[in-house]
Design a protein that fits this description.
single chain, about 120 residues, seven-stranded mixed β-sheet, mainly beta
Length: about 120
Amino acid sequence: QVQLVESGGGLVQAGGSLRLSCVVSGRTFSRSGIGWFRRAPGKEREFVAAISWRDSSAYYADYADSVKGRFTISRDSAKNTVYLQMNSLKPEDTADYYCAAGHGSSQRGYDYWGQGTQVTVSS
């Protein structure tokens, strides 16, 4: 079974930055994929970004149009950790953020989910 633990959420002013972390355990990190999703108040969960890799080399990355150019997904295979660097944050980015193990931009491609971390962006 795969376990994922998220951290890094908090309160930040508009225009600021946060880096979310997702530590993966329970299986090997090679040939795997991790996605980030978010659920804003009153809205459904939506895709944010995803990364997949072979061994220590990433070979795929994808972003939602709403975050493209502002967010960057990356990983440190030695630490079994995937990061989501969020820059130029907007109030619309306020949401609970979740990492998940799987592939693609749809929730249907992910089988294991973290507990979530809250991000609040103030005006």
